[in-house]
């Protein structure tokens, strides 16, 4: 079973999760960071895992475009899983619904993947926002391996 991970990440959490999945499985798996002009042959993969972080409620525009195109062209043997990297667990479904506008029903599973707040990677403004909104004052990692495992189980 060949699998593909497409991730969007600004500060490394999404990348960490993508690598965690790759290291957890023996099956063939390819990882691609989203970028403009990224080309893949969708029909080569039985499983596609989409990983996106959320900033100010939004996901990366290229990632959204790419994901919507994958969903549009999904074939009947293919599974598409979505992992949301976000500070607010209670909103992860909402973040997907607000960002991915078309063919949402074609996503086979949406899970919450947790978050990191790395103060070493934030600018002054970002630190200010996070202290205020998330009420976090220092670096913290809360990657939800329990939920990520649910997706891993599907691709092995
Ligand atoms: C400036 C800033 C804004 C953020 N805005 C949101 C948000 O609106 N909703 C949310 O759930 N998480 C938000 N987060 C949390 C990020 O999604 C979280 O830090 C995540 O781990 C980042 O993933 P990445 O390292 O892959 O980019 C924000 C984080 C930062 C630093």
UniProtKB/TrEMBL annotation:
| MF terms in GO | FMN binding; menaquinone-dependent protoporphyrinogen oxidase activity
The source's domain of life comes to: Bacteria
- Span of domain Flavodoxin: 4-138
Q: Which SUPFAM superfamilies match?
A: Flavoproteins
Q: Which GO terms describe its biological process?
A: heme biosynthetic process
Q: Protein name, please? A: Menaquinone-dependent protoporphyrinogen oxidase
Question: From which source organism is this entry?
Answer: Oceanotoga teriensis
